[in-house]
Amino acid sequence: MRTQSGVTHKKGRISLSIEQSVLNRLEPFKAQINLSAKAEELFVCLAEQLENREWAIRNAAALDAHGRDIAETGLAGTEFERI
Known about the structure:
Layout: H1 20-26, H2 35-58, H3 60-73
């Protein structure tokens, strides 16, 4: 696969089982869509969501402490005048 940047990425293979009713619904549109590309887009989105969730879990204590600091001093800190 070549991306817009011209970089070639190695492709892997997986086996998927899709309900026949879903495949039947997509049949009339098979010339208009690339199922592999669409599945890849969904997998990228899923991976990003899972990675973001894991990051938030790993950093929960720091995020909580930062939120408490903001609640106490405001976003700009104590060195700036408040309106």
